[in-house]
Write a structure and sequence with these properties.
Number of domains: 1
Number of strands: 5
Largest sheet: 5 strands, parallel
Radius of gyration: 15 Å
Helix content: 55-70%
Shape: globular
Distance between the termini: 17 Å
Order of helices and strands: EHEHHHEHEHHEH
CATH topology: Rossmann fold
């Protein structure tokens, strides 16, 4: 079975897309982000899918994108922040090299700004981020083999930490 070299999970603002791109480049691998796969299949941005079709439709598209990528992608894969909420996705992650990019409230809020393009953040951005972190962190932890704290680090520093983990864990 073909597997991604590493799968990145974590909240919005954790840096999954930026770190994933840097990590893939450094390892000479291809990078995929499941949010981009969903956007390509739907023909519109995630925010528009939420508005036009609802979160349930987005999650169904996401479930398919994640399953396809886990089955066929050999490089670095970043999952959307809510992808791990799906039980079948969590089952599919079993046996993969999953890294949880953990971000605190202050850094997450700073990185996502006002959340204009993030439909789950409408309203009180900091309050909503805190709620999502509280709800999802135990799930991220449960699916991850490793956790990398990202607060106060540059994307390049986080990518290097992940690279070392994956490199050292490659012989497991």
């Amino acid at each position: 079975m073909t597997r991604p070299r590493v799968v990145l999970v974590g909240s919005m603002g954790a840096g999954k897309t930026t770190v994933g791109g840097l990590l893939a480049s450094g390892l000479g691998l291809e990078f995929l982000d499941t949010d981009h796969l969903v956007e390509a299949s739907a023909g519109k941005p995630v925010a528009e899918i939420f508005v036009d079709d609802g979160e349930q439709h987005f999650r169904a598209l996401e479930r398919v994108a994640v399953a396809d990528a886990l089955r066929s992608h050999e490089g670095v894969l970043a999952l959307g922040g809510g992808a791990v909420l799906d039980g079948s996705t969590r089952e599919l992650l079993d046996g993969h090299r999953v890294v949880f990019l953990q971000v605190g409230l202050a850094d997450a809020a700073s990185r996502v700004g006002l959340g204009v393009s993030r439909p789950l953040l409408l309203g009180n951005v900091r309050g909503r981020i805190k709620q999502l972190l509280d709800e999802r962190t135990p799930i991220y932890t449960s699916v991850a083999r490793w956790t990398v704290a990202t607060d106060g680090l540059s994307a390049a520093e986080v990518a290097e930490k992940v690279r070392l983990l994956v490199q050292d864990g490659a012989h497991e």
